[in-house]
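User: Could you walk me through two proteins back to back? I'd like the raw sequence and the structure tokens for each, with a short line separating them so I can tell where one ends and the next begins.

Assistant: Of course. Protein one, sequence then structure:
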Amino acid sequence: QVQFVESGGGLVQPGGSLRLSCAAIGITTRFYNMGWYRQAPGKEREWVATTSRGVTTTYADFVKGRYTISRDNDKNTVFLQMNSLSEEDTGVYYCNRNPPFLNSWGQGTQVTVSS
């Protein structure tokens, strides 16, 4: 069974940074494009960033230049470095394959940006 365990969220002031981690269980991440997604309060879950099986990374326009996705295939882990956070970045952040395994969403990690 495929599972994802996200961590690293928290409360941060505007302009601050956080680094999220995602441990993948039941899959070997090196064989997949992996992504981060987020769900803001009252909104649908949306795609944030993808790291391909190679070295390509892609980002949603609203995070370009602020977020960096990376991976450590030896540890089956995916990361999301988030800088210059604003209140609009508040939400629950999830990782999954891209495209996602629909029955394997984890609990996510809450990111709250507030002064």
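----
Protein two, same layout:
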Amino acid sequence: QVQLVESGGGLVQPGGSLRLSCVVSGITFSNYAMSWYRQAPGNGRELVAIITMGYRTVYADSGKGRFIISRDNAKNAVYLQMSSLKPEDTAVYYCHAAENRQYWGQGTQVTVSS
């Protein structure tokens, strides 16, 4: 059974930081490109960042210079370090694994508010 379990979300003030984690089981983690997506109320799900098997990273414009995606294959984990958070970053953040098949986590809520 494939599981992607996110953690690290919460309430943070504008300008603050959060580190999201996603621990994966049931797949050969190192073979998968890993991504973070987010979905704000009333909006579709949007890509935040990707890290490939070869550790190449791609960021959506919304997070460039503020977010860092990383992975630890020994721990089957992917992370999203978010800094200088803005109210518009408020969303449910989802972990995503892709190779021949795709898998999603259940999401973790991030709320940026004073």
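The two ends are 40 Å apart (CA to CA).

Let me know if you want the two compared in more detail.
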